[in-house]
Amino acid sequence: MRGRKPKPTALKKLAGNPGKRKLNDAEPDFTEITDVEPPEWLPDLAVEMWQTVMPELLAAKVLTVPDLHNVEAFCTAYSMWRDAEDHVKQFGVVIETERSTIKNPAVTVINEAKKQMREFGALLGLDPSSRQRLVGPKKSEDKGNPFDDF
C-alpha cells in the first residue's frame, strides 16, 4: 500500500472529520484499555518501561486490547537495548577472538533493538512526530466570560 497510512475512523470523528469525506462505518470497534498489569514473562527492565509508558498511554485513551502486543514489543526491545548497551560497556565495541578482532555482536543487537523501539514507539505515538498525528479525546473547553472579548 502506497502513501500515508489511513487515519482510524475514531480519530477522524474526534477531529470533526476535517476532510469531510465519507467515514468507514464498518471499522472494528475494539475495547479501550483502562488498566493492565505487565505480563509476568517480561524482563525487569521491560517492566520498568511498561510502568513508565502505560500511564501516559492510558491517560491519552489511545490504547485498545489489540495494541497490547505493540506495548509488549516496545518494552521488550527497550530491555534488549539496555542489556546490549551494558554488554558493550563491559566488553567494548570490538572483541578479540582466537582468529581476529571483530565487531561485538551486541552492537548489532543495539541497532536492531533501537529500530524496533522506533517502529513500535511510532505505532503507539511515543515519539514527537507520530504524536502529532494522533488525536485524543476532545478536551472540555472552558467557556469563560462571554464578555472577555469586549
Number of strands: 2
As a percent range, the share of strand residues is under 5%
How do the helices and strands follow one another from N- to C-terminus?
A: HHHEEHH
Rounded radius of gyration (Å): 21 Å
Number of helices: 5
Mean pLDDT: 85
- Report the structural category: mainly alpha
Largest sheet: 2 strands, antiparallel
Indicate the low-confidence ranges by residue numbers. Answer: none
Shape: elongated
Q: What share of the residues lie within helices?
A: 40-55%
- What is the CA–CA distance across the termini? 52 Å
Major β-sheet strand ordering: 1-2
Brief sketch in words of this structure:
This protein has 150 residues and is mainly α. Helices cover 49% and strands 4% of the residues. The protein has a domain at 31-133.
Notes on the structure:
- The protein is mainly alpha-helical and 150 residues long.
- It has a domain at 31-133.
- It has helices at 9-14, 44-60, 68-91, 105-124, 128-133, and strands at 94-96, 101-103.
- It has a two-stranded antiparallel sheet with strand order 1-2.
- Helix 2 packs antiparallel against helix 3 (68-91) and helix 3 (68-91) runs antiparallel to helix 4 (105-124).
- The mean pLDDT is 85.
Distinctive features:
mainly alpha, two-stranded antiparallel sheet, 5 helices, about 50% helix, Phage_term_ssu_P27, Phage terminase, small subunit
Fold topology:
Blueprint: H1 9-14, H2 44-60, H3 68-91, E1 94-96, E2 101-103, H4 105-124, H5 128-133
Antiparallel strand pairs: 1-2
Helix pairs in contact: 2-3, 3-4
